[in-house]
């Protein structure tokens, strides 16, 4: 007999044991595991009972490091929701090389665009790691090698039917230096330093944290245009731009961080009520540039005089607020700024299809809302906090919920190179939608992409 609560009947088609974890998202963007069950090939399904109505995170795991699959399921009260997943395993070979030779003992943290999907692998003596990939799409690899002094970040869209190969080539020279306080000249320990290299094949990023002497070091820096930035709480970010040529094998830099002024923000909903626990991110590209409002809806943001910053606010309840604030260049006290987040009363159903109407799966989307491009990191937060994923699934569809009314423009991309080209701009006309309260639908059509 069915209880007033709901239930989930999960079927997974696979030839080996699959561990299924069901978790409930929390208001803080984290999740709480509810139950873990093992699906045997002979049985093919498991049942989760006594579930409250709502959305749940479903994570599937196998024995191998790349055997991961994540999705979201919706359970209705007094109903049994049926979810069937047919896994399509594809062999994945991952290589880390230096001067065409394999790099042994390279530690690689691999993350999917869906932040719930992540795994760790270490290369063997030949610089190779092998496994079976259950879920395809956009991935990021954080590669740490013995003696490198930092972490190399590499992005790649992985897709294929018979096999997938991912080669990460470590090349180039050394960039090292020290981070100091611009006023007192003492070294700044535990500052985050990132180095982005722009190459014809795309952008490579390295990250490191300064030691107690404020020192950092990057190995395997390829030639090309370099952007080095340093970030530390209580300081304005600093940036240096330079070229790294093949005949220069080592470069030493001194980076000075200026103690920051503080911009106080207050975040309110459309009724003037403070939003507590709202996540704030900006367009600076700094990894740690993310804040959460306090019990009064307030947050203190380090800023630099004379700059302009765009802030993205994601409340616990959904919706998104965007505000660009110009910081005055004089030394007057900075006045508190308010950001009003409109009601999240819009649902956008997105379908990607061929010109003949067949679904085109796994299409990533760049979004511009009311004239402002949503950065990649903010897009990840939209999914992590609200379940809004800017990528269609196997069915060629995705749904964005609890968004504000306004204009939405979408640009599809199928590779990292296409994503970087879009970000370089200027953007051509995207597929546009003026969203009104309720459910809105938009279709993006492609030639020659069906089933890919």
Helix and strand composition category = mainly beta
Spatially, the strands of the biggest sheet line up as 11-10-13-14-18-17-20-21
From the spread of the alpha carbons, the general shape counts as globular
Estimated share of beta-strand residues = over 45%
Structure notes:
This protein is 4% helix and 55% strand. The chain has helices at residues 376-386, 416-424, and strands spanning 6-13, 18-25, 31-39, 45-51, 54-61, 68-75, 80-86, 90-98, 101-102, 107-112, 118-122, 128-133, 137-144, 151-158, 164-170, 173-181, 192-199, 202-209, 215-221, 224-231, 238-244, 250-257, 261-269, 279-282, 290-292, 298-303, 308-314, 321-326, 337-341, 346-354, 364-369, 372-373, 397-403, 406-413, 431-435, 438-446. The mean pLDDT is 88. The protein is built from 2 helices and 36 strands. Strand 27 and strand 28 (321-326) form a beta hairpin. An 8-stranded antiparallel beta sheet has the order 11-10-13-14-18-17-20-21, with helices on one face. A 4-stranded antiparallel beta sheet has the order 3-2-5-6, with no helix packed on it. Strands 8, 9, 12 and 15 form a 4-stranded mixed beta sheet that branches. 31% of the residues are buried. It is mainly β. The longest helix is centred in the C-terminal third of the chain and has 11 residues, at 376-386. The protein starts with 5 loop residues before the first strand and ends in a 6-residue tail after the last strand.
């Amino acid at each position: 007999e069915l209880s007033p609560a709901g239930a989930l009947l999960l079927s997974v088609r696979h030839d080996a044991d699959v561990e299924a974890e069901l978790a409930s998202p929390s208001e803080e963007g984290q999740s709480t595991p509810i139950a873990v069950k093992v699906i045997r090939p002979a049985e093919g399904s498991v049942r989760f009972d006594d579930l409250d109505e709502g959305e749940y995170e479903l994570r599937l795991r196998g024995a191998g490091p790349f055997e991961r699959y994540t999705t979201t399921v919706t359970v209705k009260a007094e109903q049994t929701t049926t979810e069937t997943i047919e896994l399509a395993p594809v062999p994945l070979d991952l290589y880390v090389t230096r001067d065409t030779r394999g790099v042994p003992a390279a530690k690689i943290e691999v993350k999917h665009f869906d932040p719930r999907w992540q795994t760790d692998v270490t290369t063997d003596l030949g610089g190779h790691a092998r496994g079976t990939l259950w879920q395809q799409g956009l991935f990021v690899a954080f590669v740490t090698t013995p003696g490198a002094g930092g972490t190399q970040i590499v992005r790649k869209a992985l897709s294929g039917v018979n096999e997938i190969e991912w080669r990460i080539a470590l090349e180039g020279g050394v960039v090292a230096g020290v981070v100091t306080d611009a006023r007192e000249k003492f070294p700044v320990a535990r500052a985050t330093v990132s180095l982005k290299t722009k190459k014809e094949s795309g952008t490579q990023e390295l990250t490191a944290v300064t030691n107690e002497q404020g020192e950092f070091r990057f190995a395997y820096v390829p030639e090309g245009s370099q952007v080095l930035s340093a970030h530390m709480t209580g300081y304005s970010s600093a940036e240096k731009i330079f070229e790294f040529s093949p005949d220069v094998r080592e470069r030493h830099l001194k980076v000075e961080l200026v103690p920051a002024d503080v911009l106080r923000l207050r975040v309110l909903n459309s009724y003037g009520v403070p939003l507590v626990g709202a996540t704030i991110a900006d367009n600076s590209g700094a990894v740690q540039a993310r804040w959460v409002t306090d019990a009064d809806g307030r947050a203190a943001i380090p800023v630099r005089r004379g700059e302009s910053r765009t802030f993205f606010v994601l409340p616990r309840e959904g919706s998104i607020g965007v505000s660009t604030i110009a910081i005055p260049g004089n030394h007057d006290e900075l006045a508190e700024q308010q950001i009003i987040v409109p009601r999240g009363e819009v649902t956008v159903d997105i379908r990607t299809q061929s010109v003949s109407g067949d679904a085109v799966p796994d299409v990533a989307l760049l979004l511009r809302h009311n004239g402002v491009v949503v950065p990649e990191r903010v897009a990840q937060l939209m999914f992590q906090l609200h379940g809004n994923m800017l990528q269609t699934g196997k069915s060629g569809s995705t749904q964005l919920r609890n968004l504000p009314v306004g204009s939405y423009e979408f640009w599809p991309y199928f590779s990292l190179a296409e994503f970087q080209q879009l970000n370089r701009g200027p953007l051509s006309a995207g597929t546009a939608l003026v969203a009104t309260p309720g459910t809105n639908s938009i279709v993006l059509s492609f030639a020659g992409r069906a089933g890919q």
